Amino acid sequence: MGDEEANSGTATGGGDYDVFLSFRGPDTRNGFTDCLYEFMSNTGIRIFRDDEELRPGEKISEILRAVKRSQIYIPIFSKDYASSKWCLRELTCMVECARQSMGKEILPIFYDVDPSDVKLETELYESALGKHEANLGCTEVKPWRAALKTVAKIRGWHIKDQKQGKAIKDISQKVSQNIAIKKRDLPVDLIGIDDRIEAIEKLLDSDISDVRFVIIHGIGGIGKTSLAKAVFNRLSPQFEGHSFLSNIRESSSGGGVTKLQRKLVSDLFSFSLLETFDFEEGNNMIKKRLPTKRVLLVFDDMDENDQVLQLAMKSYLCGPGSRIIFTTRDKSVSTKTKLEGLEKKILMGSTKVFLYEMKELHFDHALQLFNKLAFNTDVAPCDLDLSREVVELTGGLPLALEVIGSHLRTMDKAKWKSTLKKLKEVPLEKVQQSLKISYDALGYEAQQIFLDIACFFVDKKITNAMYLWEACDLFPEVEIVVLINKSLIKIDHDRIWMHDRLRDFGRAIVRQENIGKPGERSRLGFIKTALDVVRARKGTENVIALALWRSRHDFTREDFTNLMNVRFLELDGGNFAGNFEEILPELRWLCWRNCPPKLRANNFVLNHLVVLKLSGHITAEEWSGWAEIMVASKLKVLKIAGSKSLMKTPCFPELTSLERLVLKDFPRLTQIDSSIGKLERLIYLKIKWCPRLGGLPWDIGHLTALRELILIQCFSVRALPRSICNLRGLSRLVMEDTGLVGLPDSIKGQADLEYLCLANCTSLDSLPDEVGELKSLTELDLSGTTIKELPHSIWNRKDLTLRLNSSKIRMQLMSDLPRLEGIEDCWDPMVPGAVSKSAPKKLKQAPHNKIRCSLEISYEALEYGAKQIFLDIACFFVNMKKTEAMYVWEACNLFSKVEIDVLVNRSLIEIVDHRIWMHDQVRDFGREIVRRETIGKFGDQSRLWHPEMAPDIIQAKRGTENVEAFTSWKLRHNYKLTPEDCANLRGARFLELDGQNLAGNFKIILPELRWLCWRNFPPKLQANNFVLNHLVVLKLSGDFTVEEWSKWVEMMVASKLKVLNLAGSKSFIKTPCFSEFMSLERLVLKDLPRLVEIGWSIGKLERLVYLKIKRCPLLRELPQEIGSLTALRELILIECCSVCYLPDSIGNLRLLSRLIVEDIGLVEIGRSIGKLERLVYLKIKRCPLLRELPQEIGSLTALRELILIECCSVCYLPDSIGNLRLLSRLIMEDTGLVEIGRSIGKLKRLVYLKIKRCPLLRELPQEIGSLTALRELILIECCSVCYLPDSIGI
């Protein structure tokens, strides 16, 4: 080998090498490298090095093979090292081997170069690589560059201008120490473990001098031991002593604890205990010697063996800087309270304890591991792409992957499929044995709860289940903690989570109770099996729980005669018929979906029932049949849902034990019976989606035990009864998405209230000061509200967390901090829309003058039109809809479309959700410009925006023709504006009023007005001759009447009105005539609680492009004339719960591009919808009565987004959906979806598919694999979907 080649060389003899030396021969061979080689060889280290030249025929490939067979790599970087392509190839191979194999490491030596040279930050190595690229190309040199930069970051020896003798001694000692370590055996290919090692190392933090415990806990077979071994192998060289005690649980039996003790002493102190020493004497020896050493200890697979715990207790005596790792299935065995003396050390700060939960492998890592085991490759062969199904089956459990991968390795494709089918029903024996260890360690009660969860309660709320187990004397409060500590379950957001393999293991235990006779098993959860057993009357007294899904069957007493011990029963459809006396006497839990209106059973008394959940078309007339079930019971939980006809809740007086009551999905419910006040033990009341419910009864105040009161989507509830002050123990109050207009003053009596949610209460515009006086309140949610400012009492609360997502006040609060002043410090990054507890103080101290200079530069650079729009926004349009403001500016010839883009590009405004956002610093700067227009003569300013200033000027009649816009909402509500008040305001184009009136002759007054917004306007307009020829936007909110409409028509008859918003009238039964408004383009009808009919004249609005109707609960239908709106682009219908059908004429809206229906009583979508050829966006939300989408939906060839949310009766998508060739987003949430048709595979442009909370959906079709454009597939809380289709990998 010439000088160009790397001088790595060969060692004599076979076997692996301790060290591989990589060096540039001419630079160091006869000097430093030779000395290092001789010194290490004399200490017995086996080194691979060139003996001047390679043996005949030896190739670079053999040298690289030697690299792979070595444990430690020592590259010696000299000035010409990078000029050798052989050196660089060796180095690249070293980096790759160290990355892939645990225990291999690189120890670099920077001989006569600096690390910066190796990092390619200087010309020394960079120029050498440039020459290689010229000769060999960039592709080959690229990995060499990466390898150099990687190794340069490793801490090594920098011996440039240093004494070489001492360096050689230090290097030899380090190598000797590292190769002397007793490494733990690990699998060759460890996948997905690097991040976990890093996490453990971060917890251990070897650079800190305290003593640290890390407890790695998780289910059996999840990889705890492998992780501990990997960490041990990596860190043990850093400690004076180290010991790994393996498999303690098994080793500790039969005197094994003494052997473990002797091993610990031998590993740490290098001597053996005398045979005469007993266990206690050995512990005393450890106690005396341990404090002097910095050690790394691993106690693998800890259990509750008392002697093992005594041995582990001594570990807290380790010397400073020691690290102790426990692996365990039960995290409770090694908590700080079980380590004697440890708690005191923790309090003193000298010792820390950390828990690390071992989770299943990420899907990609699990897939890679399986492919390695089954095919010895990272990627499965294309003809055997069943790998994904296997990985889904294992749930990312490494042991299961190893067993199944090895089992399938030699099988062909046909045998794979049959084997997988079997594995779905019967888990592999080795995996079961591993999991059975944890199960066998449970007591009887915990085992029963575990099996209940595995069969019925995965992803179910734990609160209700606790009542069941408590009634069965299973002591759930104790046993649930045991299951959590043993990593058999988790509780997440009040729901029970269990690993898929544990779930299958639990179900396998039940199956093995009697494989041939299902009727002899304890739990029957499979649909077909359970139904077959009951119908064939083969059930026995062994059965304690069963689920009868899709049971369209009338059950008789004979079906259940032998099922005397059933305590849990779930049904879906069907009925009970006949005499049920003394049938199901032990039943504690009854959940009945699609229950019949009338129960046909008689004498059906369930004395022990504690949980009853009914969902179906229940009527008040037939309630007595259901009441009979409960009359003698100890019922604790009652949930009633889904009745379409129930207008008043039934009587509750007999349910004196009831603690939890849920009323849900009653579209016609208007009243809650006063007997609810007799439920003296009720602690939880939830009412959801009852859009016509007018309010809570006064008797709600008698529920003195109530802790949680939750109202969601009860749009007609506008107030809480004052009797709520009697609920002294209330800790959570939720009024989400209701019509609430205010909180009662009596709210201050809720001394224990901790959580208050008013999210999406859009009619709520203020909070009483009493809210700030709720001393226990820690969280307040105002998301989506229109509240503009917080009471002062809240600003003084340092312990209160605010949630303000999508609220008006959020914009205001955010703007109080300049973006460059660390606004993130005020907002909780983990919770969108949440303000931290320190936010109020920071907001008050926000600076206001740092950016003024740059703002003036930006403003002066604007054209006239952009300046006018900028000042309008600063004074009036912040957080208002851009679309409506654009009409005003267009009418004033300000070329708004162009100028808005200019303002956005200059960062003076932003458009967020179609609203105009401006930073408060920028807003104040704009208002300051207006203020400086005429200092001292406010009546000459162009815009009177200040709430105090404008009314004074108007009343003093000091306004001039310079005034272009003003607001007088601070004027007295009963004040009457006269012609004299406004006579000089001839140039005004923008006016806002709140509650005042106009009186007198207003001829030629406000002739240039374009915008009029009038809140709380009077029923009768007292002005006459008030004609606004140029008005384009009119927004009226108040209790106006149809009879007085003529006055308003007079105002607008000659106008060019483009936008009309009518809201808040309590007397409107029918809309007024719209015939005169031929220029109208946008119409909004909102908050009209008595509106029953929309007049036919709406069809005359030929230019209407936008129609929105919201919160009109009594509106029965849209008129057929709606089909005459041929220019309509958007139709929005929200919270109109009496509208059951869309008119057939909707098919005439050929230009309609967006259709939104939310919270309405929609029963059917007509076939004419298929004519909407330009419909791009279709959203249907909270329409529980809607049963299906018509086949004509497939004719919407322009549709790009289809959203279906909370439509619980929709079970299928029409086959024609495959015709929507342009569809890119499909969202289905909270539906009754049972099946997704095969035609979905035709949606070639579908990019985003989300399916959430569709519990009846059992599978995704194989055609899902044809969605070649799909980028996001989201499947959440679809508990019946067990597998993803094979085609998903295509």
From TrEMBL:
<dbReference type="InterPro" id="IPR035897">
    <property type="entry name" value="Toll_tir_struct_dom_sf"/>
</dbReference>
<dbReference type="InterPro" id="IPR002182">
    <property type="entry name" value="NB-ARC"/>
</dbReference>
<dbReference type="Pfam" id="PF01582">
    <property type="entry name" value="TIR"/>
</dbReference>
<keyword id="KW-0433">Leucine-rich repeat</keyword>
<dbReference type="InterPro" id="IPR058192">
    <property type="entry name" value="WHD_ROQ1-like"/>
</dbReference>
<protein>
    <submittedName>
        <fullName>Disease resistance protein RUN1-like</fullName>
    </submittedName>
</protein>
<feature type="domain" description="TIR">
    <location>
        <begin position="15"/>
        <end position="179"/>
    </location>
</feature>
<keyword id="KW-0677">Repeat</keyword>
<dbReference type="Pfam" id="PF23282">
    <property type="entry name" value="WHD_ROQ1"/>
</dbReference>
<dbReference type="InterPro" id="IPR000157">
    <property type="entry name" value="TIR_dom"/>
</dbReference>
<dbReference type="InterPro" id="IPR027417">
    <property type="entry name" value="P-loop_NTPase"/>
</dbReference>
<dbReference type="InterPro" id="IPR042197">
    <property type="entry name" value="Apaf_helical"/>
</dbReference>
<dbReference type="InterPro" id="IPR044974">
    <property type="entry name" value="Disease_R_plants"/>
</dbReference>
<keyword id="KW-0611">Plant defense</keyword>
<dbReference type="InterPro" id="IPR036390">
    <property type="entry name" value="WH_DNA-bd_sf"/>
</dbReference>
<dbReference type="InterPro" id="IPR032675">
    <property type="entry name" value="LRR_dom_sf"/>
</dbReference>
<dbReference type="Pfam" id="PF00931">
    <property type="entry name" value="NB-ARC"/>
</dbReference>
